[in-house]
Amino acid sequence: MSANGSPAGQQPTATYDSAFLKACRREPVPHTPVWFMRQAGRSLPEYRKVREGIPMLESCMRPELVTEITLQPVRRHGVDAAIFFSDIVVPLKAIGIDLDIKPGVGPVVERPIRTRADLAQLRDLTPEDVSYVTEAIGMLTRELGSTPLIGFAGAPFTLASYLVEGGPSRTYENAKAMMYGDPELWADLLDRLAEITAAFLKVQIEAGASAIQLFDSWAGALAPVDYRRSVMPASAKVFRAVESYGVPRIHFGVGTGELLGLMGEAGADVVGVDWRVPLDEAARRVGPGKALQGNLDPTVLFATPEAVEAKTREVLDSAAGLEGHVFNLGHGVMPSTDPDALTRLVDYVHTQTAG
Questions:
Q1: Rounded Cα distance, 164 and 162, in Å
Q2: Kind and range of the H or E element at 270?
Q3: Which H or E run contains 328?
Q4: 4, 83, 265, 320: CA torsion to nearest 10
């Protein structure tokens, strides 16, 4: 049984008939559902207020704060799904990796993984390691009612990139050097990260998350042949590990137009598409049997309301005829975005697609 009282493999009844989950299952919807990556974050003044003086990783470990931050965009924008407020490096921190999220930089790892001996840093993740996640999701699902909660995790490749590079990178030279030069070590690293990621997602699903998203944020740095050979097996392992729960599985990366088919093949039910590929073309690349999520360019929100509506109309027209469509941005909400622009966007999509 899952924490929400539903048998494993079934959705909690409160959220099962939501527009978001219907779209993920490629069923008819009352309107196109909308949520935004990074909808709970720096674009909201109420977020900045409650986070004031609290380091990022610490804020992810306070259930009451996580609950409040996750709920903020649902209250303000009327989005069709909430996404759990956390960070992709939380499970790594939870198993003892010495890292911190430095403002203006991102995750920085004190001892990067460069040798086989370094793999010893990566022990198994247990539910007890992230008990604050279970507690927060329990609080959230009670508050959200019929609004689904999306759990998430970083994909093995993206986590490996941080661990091997020691922090953010534009070129991934150390990670790619390991991938090309020591493929056995690379495969073992990603396999171990797949197990940690799967365990983290299982905790979220069992606590009550109605869907999960795997962020492979940096996969766009890879050629398709390298993705298939050196990355896809680990992502597929994560998706297989949570398949029996029956929750929709979303897969997203940036700059992954050449990888869309493979990302769907890895096991996703919904493939996230950034703004570089129109949704009708993305559907051709992904093939049948998958819903799509996306894909308004986040910078469009800085234009006039009329321009936002025009570009949104292009996305909706491109999505016409898709088996399932969840409206989102092609990447996360930018910190300086006007929150009112997001609220207007949700209303516009709902109004235009109401059937």
A1: 6
A2: strand 270-272
A3: none
A4: 110
Q: Bridge partners of 153?
A: 214
Q: Where on the phi/psi map is residue 85: left (φ > 0), alpha (ψ -120 to 50), or beta?
A: beta
Q: How remote is the C-alpha of 130 from its chain's centroid?
A: 18
Per DSSP, the three-state class of 150 is strand
pLDDT at site 12: 53
Q: What is the pLDDT of residues 88-132, one digit of tens each?
A: 999 999 999 999 998 889 999 999 999 999 999 999 999 999 999
pLDDT band at 355 (very low <50, low <70, confident <90, very high): confident
* DSSP line for 61-124: T-HHHHHHHHHHHHHHH--S-EE----TTHHHHHTT--EEEETTTEEEESS---SGGGGGG-PP
290 contacts: CB under 8 Å, gap ≥ 6? 264, 268, 269, 270, 271, 323, 324
Whole-number Å distance between alpha carbons of 340 and 158: 32
Alpha carbon of 19 to those of 161, 230, 235, 330: distances in Å? 35, 36, 27, 20
Residue 159, pLDDT > 60, answer: yes
How far is the first Cα of the chain from the last one, in angstroms, to the nearest whole number? 36
Find the farthest-apart pair of alpha carbons in the chain and give their distance in angstroms, rounded.
58
**Which residues are designated catalytic?**
38, 42, 51, 87, 162
Q: How far apart are CA 217 and CA 263, in angstroms?
A: 12
9, pLDDT greater than 50: no
pLDDT of 206 > 50? The answer is yes
Assess contact for 325 and 280: CB atoms under 8 A. Answer: no
Structure tokens belonging to residue 153 = 């995790």
**Local structure of residue 350 (DSSP, 8 states):** H
Q: Residue written as tokens 């516009």? A: 348
Q: Which two tokens stand for residue 207?
A: 């606590």
Residue 253 vs residues 90, 103, 354: alpha-carbon distances, Å: 19, 23, 29
User: What is the distance between the alpha carbons of residues 76 and 342, in angstroms, rounded to a whole number?
Assistant: 9
In the chain, what percentage of residues exceed pLDDT 70?
97
